[in-house]
Structures are given as structure tokens and as C-alpha cells.
Amino acid sequence: MQRFAFIIHPIDAKRDVARKYPIARYFPEVLLEQFIKSREPMTVSSVTGVKSKTGEELEGWLIACPLTPRQFVTLPLEFVYRRLEQCGQIAMELGAGIIGLGAFTSVVGDGGITLASRLKGIAVTTGNSYTVATAIQGAVKAAELMGVALRDASVAVVGAGGSIGATCAEILSADAASISLVGRGLPALETTAERISSRARSSVRMFTDVAQGLRDADIVITVTSAVDAVILPEHIKSGAVVCDVARPRDVSTRVAAERKDVLVIEGGVVRVPGEMRLPKYGKPDEQFSFGFEPGTAYACMSETMILALEGRYENFTLGKDVSSRQVEEIGHLAERHGFHLEGFRSFERAVTAEHIESVRKAAHRPALDVQPVEPESLPR
User: What span, in angstroms and rounded, lies between the C-alpha atoms of 13 and 259?
Assistant: First the structure.
């Protein structure tokens, strides 16, 4: 039996605290964040029933770090590191051999490098390699269902100056008709452009303005570390597919309400092999939920499980760089153990074939003559 742990945290103070303390919805967010800050990390759920195609079985634990995205980026870094170290200590006491960093825990500081150096006896991964793999698979497959083949598509990557964005751009640039890099700083975009120039099919364009960068994009992958939404309804081309990998989301909820001709999906929702269950710690009759279908998880958590099933108790994806080699390797391991992309979700709801068809028709896009590409054969 292999063992892992995964760190989660509240995304929205008022909503998430109110799940446990209903009265919290009547308090201002600043007071709730003060309350959260005073709490220490805790185990909120165990993970059972995961079984690889190889026959290897897995158990694990979800450990909550009680900080919001805003607190991760505004509180003193040393305070945040101490909280994450506490999570690691809990994981080791439970017997985990590797711990994954969910959401903003993988963004803060140096992307897990310092944390890994402080935690002796347990491996650390951000999960970003498999996040890239599933984002690309999802975006390309969704685009085909919308009538857009990658070879004919204009692709934009928002957050292209960052680790995940740069690797997404590198991999997609080899097949896309054109590639646009969108980010806050030109120097970081120039670094990414230089990295991908040798394999890109066409010239690489750079934008520091989101509206300009998305104006012609058929496929958008957005992976920023922004606290607030950066993509608004007026930014997106009719018929575009937007894969939002970021947590908190980069795409405004207004897009779902106002743009019926745009398909927004969430990157990185994965079907886990076996019969995965998430019983709440100390309350085995209650189940913890990410808002997904039972038996599915984020890609970053899935990477942690894949490495544990493989017995790879080593630091796998750390820092601000994710290589295409890492993306390819974790993709092969995912297939070996039976992890795969599980349909699409958008704003916490499943995306049906009927919904995709209605969006395609609203955008007046003709269907492709070819069958949609299966995830296993998509570019990595």
C-alpha cells in the first residue's frame, strides 16, 4: 500500500468557512481571514479506494492549510512557510511518502523548493507537470468538438511568462497555426518566445494587454496566479475555447452568463482509477467534495497519486520551471496507472455534449469532419 498527502486551502473565506460555520456568512471577509489565520493546519479527509491498473493500491490524506489566496501573497513569506511545514509534518506523521501542493500552495515563494529543503523524510511536488498535460489535452479535444483543429487554430496562452504557461506554449506551438503569449511583463514573455521559437510553426506574438492578446484566439489556455479574474466577456472571440487552469479562476463568471458563443472549461479534472472515496476525517459517513463527480480530482493531486503509485517518492515538479520532458513522463505514467481526462467542467458544472453543440451553433462554427482526438494521442 502506497501513501501520499495533498495540501488544500480555502479559496473564498466567506463561502468556505460558512460550510462549517454557517454564521460566518454574516461576517466581513477581513474578520474571517483573521479567524482563518489563527487556525493551524488540520487533516480534513482521508483518500481511499484508489487502485492502479497495475494492481497497486493507494491511501492518502487531504491536509488543509487555513490561508486564502490573498493571505498567501500578502502575509510574510516565513509565516506561510511555517504553515506549509506544519502540513508536511502532519503528512509524515500519517505515513505519507510524498506530499502535493494544491492551488496557491504551489505558487507561493519558490514553488516548493524551500519547503522541500525543510521537510526531511517526505518528497514534494507541485503537480504542475500533469496540470500542463491535462490542460493541453482538454483544450485541444474541446476545440475539435467546437469545430476547430489545432493545426488551423490561433492559440493564446495567458500567463505565458510563468512556468506552466511557458511549457503549454512550447508544446502547443509545434502544431498550432499561430501562438500568442500574454502576460504582465514583456521580459518574461521574451524569454518564453526565445524558448519556443525553434519549434513554433509560425511567428510568435507577445502581448501585455489581455484584450489584444485574445482578440484572434481560437484556443485560450489561461494559467496566471492572479487573485481576481483577468478574462472578461468582451475579451474573447466568438467560438473560442478557453481552458482555465488557474485557481482562483482567471475567467470571470460573467463569461458564462453573457457569452453563449464561447466554451469555457476547467483544466485538469482527472478520472482516478479504482473507487476513490474522500471520507471526512473523523466523520467516515460524510464525504469531502471538490465539487467534481465522485472519483475525479484535480491534475495536481493526481500527479501526487501517480508518483506514489509508482513508488517515486522523490521531488518531481518543483520551482518555477516545468519541462516538456516532465510533462511527457508524467503523461506516460498516468496512462500506465489508469488516470485519464474526465470530460469537461465549467464553473463547477459538468459540460454536456448538448451544451458544446449549442455553443458551437451559437458561434456559427461548422462541425469538423474528423472524429475528436482521444486524450492519449494529443500533443504533450
Answer: 28
Q: Is the pLDDT of residue 373 over 60?
A: no
pTM (predicted TM-score) = 0.85
Per-residue pLDDT tens over the stretch 198-237: 989 888 999 999 999 999 999 999 999 787 899 999 999 9
Beta bridge pairs of residue 54: none
Please give the Cα distance from 165 to 109 (Å, whole number).
18
Residue 87 has pLDDT above 60, yes or no: yes
Same domain assignment for residues 76 and 111: yes
Residues 51 and 143 occupy one common structural domain: no
Give 294: exposed, middle or buried? Use CB within 10 Å, 0-12, 13-18, 19+.
exposed
Share of the chain above pLDDT 90, in %: 72
The CA distance from 210 to 231, in Å, is 7
Q: Check: CB of residue 232 under 8 Å from CB of residue 254.
A: yes
Identify the band that residue 245 occupies on the pLDDT scale cut at 50, 70 and 90.
Answer: confident
pLDDT at 63 over 80: yes
Nearest by Cα to 2 from 338, 336, 308, 312:
308
Q: Are residue 238 and residue 169 in the same domain, yes or no?
A: yes
The answer for residues whose C-beta is within 8 angstroms of residue 322's C-beta and 6 or more apart is 128, 129, 132, 163, 164, 166, 167
Of 46, 79, 91, 69, nearest in space to 227 by CA: 69
Residues 136, 150: one domain?
Answer: yes
Q: Order of strands, edge to edge, in the sheet holding 269-271?
A: 296-298, 269-271, 340-341
Q: Domain check: are 278 and 185 in the same one?
A: no
Mind listing the pLDDT tens digit for each residue in 328-339?
Answer: 999 999 999 999
Query: Same domain for 251 and 324?
Result: no
For residue 364, pLDDT over 90 is answered with yes
Q: Which domain holds residue 102?
A: 2-128+272-340
Report how many domains make up the chain: 2
| 194 and 208 assigned to the same domain | yes
